[in-house]
Amino acid sequence: MFCYQCEQTAGGTGCTKVGVCGKNEDIASLQDALIIGLKGVAAYAYHARELGLRDEKVDAFMHKALFTTLTNVNFDLDDHVAKVLELGEINLMAMEMLDKANVGRFGSPEPTQVFTGFKPGPAVLITGHDLLDMYELLVQAEAAGVNVYTHGEMLPGHAYPELKKFKNLVGHYGTAWQNQKKEFEEFPGAILGTTNCVLLPKESYKDRMFTCGVAKLPGVTHIENRDFTAVIEKAKSLGALPEKEGGTLTTGFHHNFVLSIADKVVEAVKAGKIRHVFLVGGCEGAKASRSYYTELVKQIPQDCIIITLGCGKYRFNYLDLGDIDGIPRLLDMGQCNNAYSAIQVAVALAKVFNCGVNDLPLSLVLSWFEQKAVSILFTLLHLGIKNIRIGPSAPAFLTPNVLAVIQENYNLQLITTPENDLEKMLA
């Protein structure tokens, strides 16, 4: 453990074995888990509030859970476990609220092919997650004759009707957040960071990068009140992007669409044409061991479907996996918060087959990096979903005892090798 939140902390630097207050490492771990999970809830609730929706229960839980982590408030291990699971419930509510806000404002996403090359004209690259920032940029850039490209978690924006109608939304560039220094350096236009997943910029592109909203970087111009004039003027001053050939990526398999073709999916499952469904998604990161997710998807049999979401999909969303009776084998549901869509599909299929979610031919293989992925994991545990595989490593804030409790009750497993895990999931 490590705790230095009070004046009496050991040696004036931090308690590492047991708190001077009597708090043990497991309580400290669960308090860390609460705080980390709350950061994910805050992200989703923040975006929903921007679009006009809020939930008093979500807000009240944030206050109570944070109060619980104060010094000398709660030493009960069982109560902390219950609060972590309750956080999963609250995060589900926050994701649902954000989904309703996005769909209400921008329409229900629909499958969309996205161009990955360049079209002639001055351009802005937008990264992050905030669809309202994207909308306002598109409005202002359209009037100025400037094209807009998405990066990272903005790819799903192409699937929303009220965003895809803009003719200056011309394509997608790049992959996940950890590659942005190389990718931003090579992008010849202006760059706008809207939320988390921005890195300290290199000097080579700092003068053409901007931030807005909660995102701020030293030495980078920050945009207030969504007035993107400076971004657009910088794009125009840099000149037109050269035309460049590219391929396509497909996104937009929101639960509204997937449920509209549920009868085809059910029919294919009953006919034995779809043997298993894998959810492979989450955060992306730089560890070489994350190649596991690429190899896993490559090795998944042809009679199986893969659902994905979050920026972890950039490990494999370029692959041509074909279809099963017209149903694409790879279904990109969108951003990390669109885990809500995956949950809705799983619950709907369980009702059709008159069974529990854990009885479906469904396996969840998650990649995690930061707080939002952790809050989603707690949501899945709150729903009682078992046999989840997570990687590439276990969260460091979970002590062996806390991890053991989760594994005992939910059979949470760490990934091993694609071959070994596939054999067990398909058994």
UniProtKB/TrEMBL annotation:
Q: Which InterPro entries match?
A: HCP/CODH, Hydroxylam_reduct, Prismane-like_a/b-sand, Prismane-like_sf, Prismane_a-bundle
Q: What is its main location?
A: cytoplasm
Which CDD domains does this entry report, sorted A to Z?
HCP (cd01914)
Which enzyme class, named as a word? Answer: oxidoreductase
Q: Which Pfam families match?
A: Prismane
Q: Name one GO biological process term.
A: response to hydrogen peroxide
Look up the EC number in the record and give it.
1.7.99.1
Keywords of the record, alphabetical order, are: 4Fe-4S, Cytoplasm, Iron, Iron-sulfur, Metal-binding, Oxidoreductase
Q: Can you tell me which residues bind [4Fe-4S] cluster?
A: C3, C6, C15, C21
Subcellular localization: Cytoplasm
Superkingdom as given in the UniProt entry? Bacteria
Q: Which reaction does it catalyse?
A: A + NH4(+) + H2O = hydroxylamine + AH2 + H(+)
Recorded GO cellular component terms are: cytoplasm
Required cofactors, per record?
hybrid [4Fe-2O-2S] cluster; [4Fe-4S] cluster
Q: How is the cofactor bound?
A: Binds 1 hybrid [4Fe-2O-2S] cluster. Binds 1 [4Fe-4S] cluster.
Q: Which GO terms describe its molecular function?
A: 4 iron, 4 sulfur cluster binding; hydroxylamine reductase activity; metal ion binding; peroxidase activity
Q: Which residues carry this modification: Cysteine persulfide?
A: C283
Q: Which residues bind hybrid [4Fe-2O-2S] cluster?
A: H129, E153, C197, C283, C311, C336, E370, K372
Instruction: State what this protein does.
Output: Catalyzes the reduction of hydroxylamine to form NH(3) and H(2)O.
**Similarity remark:** Belongs to the HCP family.
Q: Which NCBIfam families match?
A: hybrid_clust, PRK05290.1
PANTHER family per the UniProt record, alphabetical: HYDROXYLAMINE REDUCTASE
Q: What is this protein called?
A: Hydroxylamine reductase
The organism encoding this protein is Desulfallas thermosapovorans DSM 6562
Organism placement in taxonomy = Bacteria, Bacillati, Bacillota, Clostridia, Eubacteriales
Q: Which gene encodes it?
A: hcp
